[in-house]
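RECORD CONTENTS
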Amino acid sequence: MLRTPRGGTEPGAAAADGGAMSIGTVLNVLRDEFPEVTISKIRFLESEGLVEPQRTPSGYRKFSVEDVERLGHVLRMQRDHYLPLKVIREHLDAMERGEAAPLPTVGRQRDGEAVPERPDAPTAARIGRSELLAVAGIDEHELQEWEAYGLVAPLEDGIYDAEVVTVAALVCELRRFGIEPRHLRVMKAAADREAGLVDQVVAPLRRHRNPQTRAHAEARVKELAGLTVRLHAALVQTALGVRLP
């Protein structure tokens, strides 16, 4: 069984009776450490063979504590090390076989140079163009298309913020359903408007002369971002008349 690293998700608290968990319960457990995780993300990781929950006779997923630990480990390696899912899957499978499995490294980008991973390295990082192509499993033409529609954009030095890895994974997942980058312009526009609203709320705090107040502004941004994401998801589900299990 995979052990949850110190400071990681503790799924046992959500399933004290040792019973299986629904995908909604798993989402709530994981969101303590991964506020951006969604049910679609969990389903995508399942489709990629990263986790294999049991199914009830009616088709509902039932996750064990070990499943949730594995998901937490996957999300942590994506967030902190930006590893391709194939590499993560092979790493976890080796661990479960009891083999020595040192964590593979994919160079982070800082000031235009790749640097090795360290256990104490900050999670805020950047990723180079060739690395993004490899992690996302796309070619140069596809990345140019994403940039043309504003889905991803390089920073001034041509390096990308590491959050584009999450964007890339979701764009690829939507493409499996026939949703192309050009269809996602409306989502990008909505995201820009929501970001503008958040910026408007926190702007006075960011301009404050007190450093503690400015630091509080960044915490407020994260809180508001999480709330807007959850509201957006709820509104989409309401509009479609669906209730996710």
